[in-house]
Amino acid sequence: MSAARDLSVKAALRAACVCSVFLFAPTVPRAQGTDPQADVLAKSIVEKADQIRFPQEGFEVDVAITTTANGQVTDARKYRVMSKGNENTIALVTEPASDRGQALLMRGRDLWIFLPTVSQPVRLSLSQRLTGQVANGDIARANFAGDYTPRVLRTEKIGGDDFYVLELTAVDRGVTYNKILYWVKQSNAYPLKAEFYSLSDRLLKTARYEDFKPLAGRPRPARIVMQDALRKGEESVLEYSDMKLRDLPDKMFSKDYLKRL
User: Minimal CB count within 10 Å: which of 53, 188, 208, 258?
Assistant: First the structure.
């Protein structure tokens, strides 16, 4: 009886030790980006917001960019942009007259500028400044879903509406920005604002999406206000007009074709 009792006591002690391991072991948090449902939700939000900003089909739009510093206009430019599927874009300078004939060509993430006075196109990066607070990629490429890995950070209520706040991380260094914080309305996927960050995680500029109106068949932001986060009082306003769907052949988006254009 005594031996049996000793065995049962030892067994109980062993069980208690095992239980204590589970009870007091530290909780290991789930690694970020490993929740498939969260990943699908974040990607879906960004894709829908991309479709709100610009058509997925071929389209043409006029873009006027006005840059100001402390309320004074420092630069004004106009472009005619032709894009297909957010992967192929041509941006032709229409004003000022002195720059007419200049053109940007984007294929995928490859970008070139054509200058009337230079025989060969010049390679550019998407992150290089185009004018004012506007980078080349801001006008030539609007494919957030393809260029960034998104995750939902939180939700916020702004002006009585609920918004997703997403963090978009660049898939590689060839995209326009290293990181974007992006506010998207929950009810209709309308983008509200974005913050753009450098490789060193410094805030470069902010953007507000405004003046939603029918463009190419659905409401889209006709005005984007980009403000410099480093130099207060400096901003560029992009205004979109005369957007229409167009059947743009793939051959348009080539160096040889653009030379003729």
Answer: 188
